[in-house]
Amino acid sequence: MMDADKALELVKSGATLLLLDVPQYTLIGIDTQVFSVGPAFKGIKMIPPGVHFVFYSSSTRDGKEFSPITGFFIDAGYSQVVVRMWDQQEERLIKVPEEEEERYRQAVRSFEFDKHLGPYDLSLYADWKRLSNYITKSTIERLEPIGGEITVTYEHGMLKNTCKSAMERVLDEQLRNSKFSSPAEKHPKRGCYYTPIPRIIKRKGIESEQLTSLNLDKTELLETLLVKDYGGSEESLLGELQFAFIAFLMGQSLEAFMQWKSLVSLLLGCTEANHSSCQSTVCKLEELNA
What we know:
By secondary structure, the protein is an alpha+beta fold. The chain has 2 domains: 4-122, Sandwich (Substrate Binding Domain Of DNAk, Chain A, domain 1), CATH 2.60.34.20; 150-289, Serine Threonine Protein Phosphatase 5, Tetratricopeptide repeat. The protein is 39% helix and 17% strand. The chain contains 10 helices and 10 strands. It has helices at 4-13, 98-109, 125-132, 137-143, 166-177, 208-216, 219-228, 234-249, 254-268, 276-289; strands spanning 15-20, 27-30, 33-36, 43-47, 50-57, 70-76, 81-87, 92-94, 118-119, 150-151. The protein has a 5-stranded mixed sheet with strand order 8-7-1-4-9, covered by helices on one side. A 5-stranded antiparallel sheet has the order 3-2-5-6-10, with no helix packed on it. A hairpin with a 4-residue loop joins strand 7 and strand 8 (92-94). The two termini are 31 Å apart. Belongs to the AAR2 family. This is Protein AAR2 homolog. Residues 14-145 form the AAR2 N-terminal domain. Residues 194-276 form the AAR2 C-terminal domain. It comes from Gossypium raimondii (Peruvian cotton).
């Protein structure tokens, strides 16, 4: 049992997620934790500073059916208050005007909402850090979609030119026919800005044996991508891998799953990773899976 002084210190130093007017039975999640909204719920307090993934699913009035999940990443600072309000018509969380947001921030810091805020379960924080330790603010800014919201309802049509397995084609078909699906043309570029990962290497002017070798061992492709798309930073690549995995696991994003699968296939395809950068990246992938 945490003593009162320690709890007060964590409330003051931790971030707060203030969620206003969220309907009862809505599922609200942060990182690996999920809450079912009750009549008094107005958010989450004692959130450790750093990167977090917030996600939610609206419910029918009886709490028996739920919409697809919508999520977004935040990089919370010490004592920061993040404010979102429920839009009844669109059934989603939206930002509030800056002047209004500042009033809510002051109210939170004056403990006016304290009894309506659920505490972040700090015993689960270590698990979250292992999942997200390479994700930074710059990772989020580079990859997040316009508006920041990640949801499978915007993803139909984005994956039509990608190579999918039989099961992935079934999922795509279900998404196309879902009552929640929103046509991609109505929401231009609502997907994340993931790095394109070539599935097959094509190169003119080289022998067929050499081309076959390049496709069997992806070391050279990894080296090229690290320099060209990640500024030579293996941490940036691993940050994107974690971003995609979390968006898939917690946010149920099919686009995120496809990117995670592409990155894992690339890294595991480096069978002759002699260069230190590739060796280090693959070793860190193994550590993430440990």
